[in-house]
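forwarding from the other thread:

> can someone predict this with magnesium ion?

sure thing
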Amino acid sequence: MAINWYHYASPATFHPLAGRLAAAFAWLAAALTAAGLWIGFVVAPTDATQGEAYRIIFIHVPTAWMAMFIYLVMAFWSALALGFNTRLSAMMAQSLAPTGALMALLALWTGAFWGRPTWGTYWAWDARMTSTLILLFLYLGVIALRNAIDDPRRADKACAVLTLVGAVNVPIIYFSVRWWNTLHQGASVSLTSAPKMATIMLTGMLVMTFACWFWCIAVALWRVQAIILERERGAGWVAALPAVRET
Amino acid sequence: MGARDSDDHDGGGTDAFAWALRRDLAIALRTRSELAVQLLFYAIVVTLFPLATTPERNLLSTMGPGVLWVAALLAALLSLPRMFALDQADGSLEQMALSPWPLPAIVSGKIAAHWLVTGLPVVLLSPIAALQYGLDGTAIAVLVAGLALGTPVLSLIGAIGAALTLGVRGGGSLLALLVLPLYVPVLIFGAGAVDAVRGGLAVDANLSLLGAGLIVAALGAPFAAAAAVRIALD
Amino acid sequence: MGARDSDDHDGGGTDAFAWALRRDLAIALRTRSELAVQLLFYAIVVTLFPLATTPERNLLSTMGPGVLWVAALLAALLSLPRMFALDQADGSLEQMALSPWPLPAIVSGKIAAHWLVTGLPVVLLSPIAALQYGLDGTAIAVLVAGLALGTPVLSLIGAIGAALTLGVRGGGSLLALLVLPLYVPVLIFGAGAVDAVRGGLAVDANLSLLGAGLIVAALGAPFAAAAAVRIALD
Amino acid sequence: MLEAQDLAARRGTSQLYEGLSFSVRDGVALVVTGANGRGKTTLLRALAGLSEPAAGTIRLDGEAVRPFAAILRRAVAFAGHAAALKDELTARENLASLAALAGADPSPADIDAALDRVALGPKRSLPARVLYQGQRRRIGLARLALVRRRLWILDEPVTALDAEGTALLAGMLDAHLAGGGMAVAATHAPLAVDRSRIASLSLD
Amino acid sequence: MLEAQDLAARRGTSQLYEGLSFSVRDGVALVVTGANGRGKTTLLRALAGLSEPAAGTIRLDGEAVRPFAAILRRAVAFAGHAAALKDELTARENLASLAALAGADPSPADIDAALDRVALGPKRSLPARVLYQGQRRRIGLARLALVRRRLWILDEPVTALDAEGTALLAGMLDAHLAGGGMAVAATHAPLAVDRSRIASLSLD
Ligand code: HEM
Ligand SMILES: Nc1ncnc2c1ncn2[C@@H]1O[C@H](COP(=O)(O)OP(=O)(O)OP(=O)(O)O)[C@@H](O)[C@H]1O
Ligand SMILES: Nc1ncnc2c1ncn2[C@@H]1O[C@H](COP(=O)(O)OP(=O)(O)OP(=O)(O)O)[C@@H](O)[C@H]1O
Ligand SMILES: [Mg+2]
Ligand SMILES: [Mg+2]
């Protein structure tokens, strides 16, 4: 089957498609969130050692995973943008950065508020925490670089280079931080030695992860629509859009 | 010859490297005061910490490796904005990008010069600074070895950041923001090596990781920086 | 009127101060990303230290005050070169020096704007950073109080350095070199106050010294910086 | 009346000019000419009180003035190579800010009128970043008109101006001189101003 | 032969030019004119391979070239607004360095001869910092002569040159064209070159 990718890679065709896809993913995300929250807060039992506080896991782990995953996706689009000089890939990368930063921030936030009851502190220089913090800095760096460059075409390329360099570095950072931490001392709280996670909790976490994932897709698509409109505002097809004609 | 692609080059990589290295060193030596300023900055930052924290020997020697590494990193950072900006301002950068020589080789030469001017002095000064923090002989040796392997990585990664922020609003601080997170592994392995030897552990793992990082950075960074330079000229 | 001397002024000091403050804030707010970059730089430097030294809580809380102060100082330092350089490059500085308003008042307004843009955010972010280092409530309060008194001094003294190095080769590093020794007392009193409160000692001596420093700097620095600006224009 | 007596300028080790004496009466524009690097800009900056001459005195209305002297700062409008515009601010904000700095207190309507007069009305809300060189210089012209100073010091005022802009400048200068103002201008191109009001000084 | 097809340039959201097609044969100089800000510099940079045109293709000898293409880099000598001189190096060092960068390998005698030809011989050991703007441009002329490229791209080549320098440039350009070279020059002032070798392109 021959799909004409270039057809869909044109902002003019992609704009309406993105709108339809975004709506679909948003509905899916809403449904999964409802299911996930129900499992997490109603079905799952209270934890023997941590009490109710452990329920943060249903937000914490999905957002932490998404923070890392989105960076990979962003790097993928950046590579396409540099390799094939496609405008749309750069716009996709641009639209993902704020969502990724938000996910990293949420993971940090929920983690910190989880740490208070369980470890007695908001923050410890634990490997995962530290590498998530640095990941947040990388996202913010990409966003800051984008804001500092006036010409969008130049910003696309510069951000793509930065994202790819960061993509090489993210695993290195992850392992270095992990290693650094264990060199000095044993982990203050070992998560792996905790009793095997109950199936119901795992289900809840997975459902929430998908909810989170779909929500990210929906938001990214909406954002890319906005970016397309802003960048192509000189083009004829934008002027012909019903929403634009009305104003 | 069929050299149709923008990334297809004429060869002459060694010439290009030597040209850029020689030129940038010549310029740096004519403006000797800059070298001195670089060293003094390092010395001052290293001196500030005991003042701000505590003069206690034990604590100082624990903090020492970390502080010396952070100071090296900040010294590198401070000199990065000038790496390409002056060449862009006077038009040399255009001429480099239009040279038949491969741009990544030219950029490598500039990076090497940058390290010789900003990194090497820090490496050479660090034993004296380490004495201030009460580090002993082996620890100092590991510190120097780590800095010798790590500071070139700082110049290499820094070159990418410097090229990306060329002519961009808020240059210096933005550059710091982009580059510092990428410096983290160097910092951890470098300072970690000294900590390891002070704790009686083996240091080869840390140093080999730094060495591996140096090789990866040396192979990749000039290409990324050259790409960023071209983007900046566009 | 007999206004014959170059240091004899027309009055209008308040107008001049308000004009410069409002103008520089407006410009800073238009380039909002710069504000964010400033904050992020501080956050990253604060993060680097535990990575380079040790994640151990006890040690961290001992180092904490010093590190947070040094980071504040470096954040101020990094933004100094832009304090007058942009105005010189686009010719605004000439017009300021030729204004009938007293130049020290204009310079004061610019310094105030600089502090609001670079110092105040650091003061506001420092409690969160302090939590990362495991400082407790009172220590954090003293830290914030110290920074609130001390960071304006950094901007004031920095202005003199920024004006002195206007248009000088190797500006950024030279500026660091000139200014850092003058920052040392601020650093010692500021970090010392937190150390004192953590050791159960009284902090008023340290904080009053910072306050006194602020008054002296506020009265003297604008005149020195204005004189340096005139020299730079010559 | 502006007088210069025995002015000299040195740059590094080389002498630019020496023993330069002249005076500019009210209603007269002094046009300074000379090849590149002869010191036109240096002279103008000294007259504006931005730098100290290597030797000699400058008098305004008979009173010797030093650099940054208050009477000079109240009398001079200086337009150098750089337009003193902030890229981030709009044309209107820039003009208002510069006028306030010079001690003038124009109303928003005055500002808009001044921008209209230099044909920048439609661009008044654009950030200066997007203005062309010529449009930027026009804001400088509007500033000159707003701040009402006795002595205009203009360094290459027609650079980057097109024919219309040059005519605008000439008109403004004419009015300024007719009103008893003084001007000193360094320029390569001749100014289209009433010849009787022009005095010349060559540094070659 | 250099061909441009349907070139367009955009800066921010505004279109500078569109659908621009032309060709430059060997032995011909294309003179690009247009008011300030019409995109002359932008066009020249695109032709030199320094930036990607918003639309259209550039061909050298029939082969489409992208920015920084190797064949372009071997064919083009670009002289932009900035002279690419390092203040710290002497005139001679600067010239030697620039020639090497362009792949030429002149002997010290060649360098001195080239500097003599542009009447900079006596200044050859001075650091570029102390040279006037016009003298700096002359080093650029010497560079053009040394590097021997087929296609000269010159942005406002006569700026800051005095009469003698302008004549020097015209002579060199004449010789270059007579030898089968091509040139594209953006200029406000006319070039004193054999009229039959000149083609014109106006961006207004
Ligand atoms: C600001 C603080 C925190 C951050 C930035 C953070 C970050 C992360 C990240 C990045 C992951 C997923 C990556 C991986 O699996 O290795 C994760 C997973 C997890 N985190 Fe956190 N975390 C924080 C605090 C906490 C706290 C306080 C707890 C509980 C006491 C916690 C419990 C968990 C659990 C149970 C997982 C799932 C582990 C698994 O994959 O089995 N986290 N966190
Ligand atoms: N800050 C400086 N330091 C050293 N030399 C300088 C400085 N500024 C100018 N010069 C030199 O002083 C000389 C006179 O410069 P000036 O700008 O006054 O000349 P000008 O007549 O205005 O020239 P132009 O026609 O190019 O504007 C020149 O040779 C110049 O190189
Ligand atoms: N980097 C840039 N970003 C945004 N706009 C730019 C940039 N460079 C140039 N421009 C704008 O693009 C337009 C064309 O500029 P260009 O320099 O090509 O014109 P030009 O014809 O060479 O003008 P001049 O005669 O002044 O040299 C101008 O309006 C300019 O303001
Ligand atoms: Mg001049
Ligand atoms: Mg141009």
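The CA atoms of residues 3 and 70 of chain C lie 45 Å apart. thats all i got for now
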